[in-house]
Amino acid sequence: MNRVVVLLLTLAFVAPSSAAAFCGFYVAPGDAKLVNKATRVALMRHGTTTVMSLQPDYEGPAEGFALVIPVPQVLKKDDVKTLDHSLFNTLDEFTSPRMSEYWEQDPCHPTRFYNFDDMLIDGEIQKKSQTAPQKPATPFVKIEAKFEVAEYDIVVLSSNDGASLETWLTDRKYKIPKGAAPYLAPYINSGMYFFVAKVDPKRAKFEGKRAILSPLRFHYTSQDFTLPIRLGMINAEGEQDIVVFVLGEERFVPANYPHAPIPTNIVVKDKVRKNFAGFYEGLFAKTRKENEGAIITEYVWELATIQSKTEIVQGNTCDPCTTSVSYFAPEWLVSLGLDVFGVVLSAESKVAQPLTAGTPKKLVVTRLHGRFKPDLKSPDIVFQKASPLFGGMGMPDAKGGLEPTVHRDAVNMFQARYILLNKWKGKTLCKAPSYGHWGLPPNPKAPVQGNGGSFGKKTEAFAPEDYVKGAINYSPPKKRFPVRPE
Questions:
Q1: What residue spans of 75-135 are helical by DSSP H?
Q2: Per-residue pLDDT averaged across 264-284, rounded?
Q3: Among residues 143, 250, 269, 389, which is most buried (max CB within 10 A)?
Q4: What is the Cα–Cα distance from 183 to 292, expressed in whole angstroms?
């Protein structure tokens, strides 16, 4: 198989509706309605291998619930496992947009802070060619594998005809979303298989009548790294948000869609405190409008360095941190996929065996956020590696200005950060006061988190210009980054 199908995180920091797109679709028996509300996904990519971890959420009955996902190869039981829910909560909170507050220091005893130098790299964006679809042969549906994992009954199907696959599910009393065949066709023509994870209510956990499904993780190999969005639109109700976390040695961007970093390091007015979600939704929407409906980079950060034959070392500590978690623990990274690449931890969180030549040397997380209409016109997203991105960092200068977003040669440190500045209001007793030096108060408050847990809740968008001091630059850095082939 030569195409990789990647699931997508479906609800963003602030989602526009109660339903969201997904790269697979939900099916249910009879006339039961299933809406894909919020599915969180982490993708660890190294070489031609992808480790996918996803947490499904939905509205509907657990009885007969199933998830249909296209995959590039037949998965075996050893390729599939379940994870702890806390991994996704931590990942989302760690990468959420945030506010940071600084206070002007005593002009008689200022403290100076270091700011990074700007380093830009030239380059051009290149697009990957798409494989031409193959003509279907005699219609068939075949069960390639069948096994159980936790509360899931799993089958892997092969087929060469969308209508036949619909019939297979319909004959087993599943109601297929209307018009599914055209959505299935591109994946069938590309030689994909279909991973069907059905929930057994007798093995599932419940909160009231709502089933709490365990996160699923599986891995596969494929030359291309793509994200199918058309199939997930079958369950969509209106325009849908897509957020995907990619973990790899470098950051990732779309190769076949416009893309831009979210404007960051913006000084905001105090009223943002009460309307941060609405301010950010407005900023996100206008950034997409100013950049041709772009997929937006919201976060890029080096989570860890993996030192051969020694240990996993924490990467750059969050700055500021939105939770009590300041870095990703080694065991979390192993759970998200490092074990697939030969990393095994001892009780002391040290590598228990020498790392193989194919092990990543570091892990960078990229958070990408897009918005799509439920139709067949949007092509699947193709990922490509990109040079490091730096932004949302640094202390304000003497005039309250902040460093711009730039493409750098070595540093992946980019975050959606919005700044509240508090001018010095104390007495000035010295003869030569020096103003414009910023820092933290004696007892700093925790930064305002980006409300990243409000999955599926509609958020009103406010005009971002009403909440900032000065102009907003919606254009990405003028110097483009070089593309590194996958």
A1: 86-95
A2: 90
A3: 389
A4: 25
Listed residue (313, 245, 267, 242) closest to 89, CA to CA:
245
Provide the token pair at 254: 């779309």
d(CA 38, CA 27): 15
Provide CB contacts within 8 A for 147, sequence distance 6+. 76, 77, 80, 154
SS3 state at 195: strand
Q: Which residues contact 137 (CB under 8 A, 6 or more apart)?
A: 160
User: Does the predicted TM-score (pTM) go above 0.85?
Assistant: no
Chain centroid to Cα 242, Å, comes to 8
Q: Give mean pLDDT, residues 377-383.
A: 83
Per the listing, tokens 């037949």 go with 74
Contact 37, 455 (CB under 8 A): yes
d(CA 112, CA 39): 44
Other C-beta atoms lying within 10 Å of the C-beta of residue 183: 20
In this prediction, residues 340-348 reach a mean pLDDT of 76
* Residue type at 69 in one-letter notation: I
Count of residues in the chain:
486
Which of the given ranges, 58-62, 96-100, 147-151, has the highest pLDDT on average? 147-151
**What's the distance, CA 311 to chain centroid?**
26
3-state secondary structure of 422: strand
Among 416, 5, 7, 484, which Cα is nearest to 249's? Answer: 484
Q: Is the model's pLDDT at 371 over the cut of 60? A: yes
pLDDT at position 449 is 52
Is the CB of residue 86 less than 8 Å from the CB of residue 220? Answer: no
Angle at 231 between CA 227 and CA 237, to 5 degrees: 110
Per-residue confidence (pLDDT) for residue 310, from 0 to 100: 57
| Domain boundary assignment for the chain | 25-484
How high is the pLDDT of residue 291?
93
Distance CA 375, CA 12 (A): 20
Mention every residue, 6+ apart, whose C-beta is less than 8 A from residue 350.
310, 311
Distance between first and last Cα of the chain? 16
